[in-house]
């Protein structure tokens, strides 16, 4: 108590089930993320830990649970599901430590590690389209060509671009305000904050402004810009199967997903000279570090161009410099 690190044992008598309700209620996340947390609680975490007190959780038991985790039907859970559920329990117990309910997280080693969690699968390699390929795919998308081009040149996420309203577009200054997004939660389409809960602006390429202007004619300020033929919000699965899948085949490009358009926007931006901070702001990443982690290869290629330009400048300066040293020194320098 004198050191200030004493925790009342009585506080740890709250069960994992009771704490999970308080923990989930206090999270500031998107409806989709909250739905995922709630689903893992009901199907994987609470069936094992519902009545266990926080101060009775043991590392050995957590390891055994992760290793033998089964779903609602008794089938072994996938590595991804086991990792996600285990990591969620760790986060819940971290929050209990912050709340002063328990002194340390029993799901971590003394060194603070969770090496027993299955390793995350390597992300699929990114698919990048060239300008010509992007234009070809857009041409094959018919009336949704502008939709595809806007995604391919701004990197807007599916939920962000489908939630755009007329009021969000300022063609006078060529800006789009991104402050909300669609998400599918439990079979229902909801409108909420963007993935990072941040409001940002992206620049509309000049050649797209006229197309957007035509789409907004005779629309109210709160009307969606991109909708299905019956006027309802676009559905990702339907669009991918009925429009995009046919378009990339007809355009003669490799298999394409809508998210590949976001990767393409990053690639085209870097190829045009954008730095890390500019790409981060355009894509709405939480940090520049995340942008670098995701697109490190693009910036590696960019550094080669930078090095070539630096070399050209150096050679040009050397060619125009006036020798001020003796002949032997100049000869040695050139060698």
Automatic annotation (TrEMBL):
It holds the Pfam family Phage_integrase. It comes from the Bacteria. Keywords: DNA recombination, DNA-binding. PROSITE patterns: TYR_RECOMBINASE. Residues 314-335 are annotated as: Disordered. It comes from Angustibacter luteus. Belongs to the 'phage' integrase family. Residues 324-335 have a biased composition (Polar residues). InterPro entries: DNA_brk_join_enz, Integrase-like_cat_sf, Integrase_catalytic, Integrase_recombinase_N, Tyrosine_recombinase_XerCD. This is Tyrosine-type recombinase/integrase. Residues 124-308 form the Tyr recombinase domain. The keyword Protease does not apply.
């Amino acid at each position: 108590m004198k050191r200030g690190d004493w925790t009342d044992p009585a506080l740890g008598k709250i069960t994992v089930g009771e704490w999970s309700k308080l923990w989930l209620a206090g999270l500031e996340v998107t409806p989709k993320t909250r739905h995922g947390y709630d689903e893992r609680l009901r199907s994987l975490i609470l069936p094992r830990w519902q009545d266990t007190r926080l101060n009775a959780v043991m590392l050995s038991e957590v390891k055994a649970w992760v290793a033998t985790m089964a779903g609602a039907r008794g089938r072994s859970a996938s590595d991804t599901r086991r990792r996600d559920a285990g990591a969620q329990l760790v986060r819940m117990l971290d929050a209990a430590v912050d709340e002063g309910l328990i002194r340390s997280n029993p799901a971590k080693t003394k060194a603070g590690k969770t090496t027993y969690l299955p390793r995350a699968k390597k992300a699929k390699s990114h698919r990048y389209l060239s300008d010509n390929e992007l234009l070809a795919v857009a041409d094959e998308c018919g009336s949704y060509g502008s939709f595809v081009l806007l995604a391919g040149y701004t990197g807007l996420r599916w939920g962000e671009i489908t939630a755009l309203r007329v009021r969000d577009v300022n063609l006078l200054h060529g800006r789009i305000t991104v402050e909300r997004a669609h998400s599918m939660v439990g079979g229902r389409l909801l409108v909420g904050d963007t993935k990072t809960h941040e409001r940002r602006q992206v620049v509309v390429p000049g050649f797209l402004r006229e197309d957007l202007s035509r789409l907004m004619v005779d629309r109210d300020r709160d009307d969606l810009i991109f909708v299905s033929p019956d006027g309802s919000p676009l559905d990702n699965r339907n669009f991918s199967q009925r429009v995009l899948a046919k378009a990339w085949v007809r355009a003669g490009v490799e298999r394409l997903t809508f998210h590949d358009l976001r990767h393409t926007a990053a690639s085209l931006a870097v190829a045009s000279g954008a730095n890390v901070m500019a790409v981060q702001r355009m894509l709405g990443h939480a940090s520049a570090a995340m942008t670098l982690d995701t697109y490190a290869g693009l910036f590696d290629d960019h550094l080669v161009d930078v090095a070539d330009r630096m070399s050209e400048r150096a050679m040009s300066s050397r060619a125009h410099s006036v020798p001020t040293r003796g002949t032997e020194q100049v000869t040695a320098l050139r060698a």
